[in-house]
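Here is an idea for our session: we take a single protein and study its fold together. Which protein we use is up to you, so please pick one and set it down. Once you have written the record down, we can walk along the chain together:
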Amino acid sequence: MSDENKQLLPQVRAPHVHTKEVIEALAIQEGCLLAKDMGLSHIVIESDVQSVIQAVQMGRYEGPSVGNIIQSIVELLSSFPQGQIKYCPR
């Protein structure tokens, strides 16, 4: 994740989490919280976990362990004047 100046932001590790969707959703959520704390107004989140990107873009996720995190990400992204999330394949 990087800010509007293409500066890389710190990565977050989530211990004891077993699925890539949960790990990625938590990392995105933490990145949004960090960007908000830093006072950024324009953020672009990129991820290679397409299911999480689609869930955020649609505002819902079917899996029980990620749904609340996705909702939090949607709410956080809406708090930025220009916040977007996009899929970036490896």
In short: The mean pLDDT is 87. The helical segments are 20-37, 50-58, 67-78.
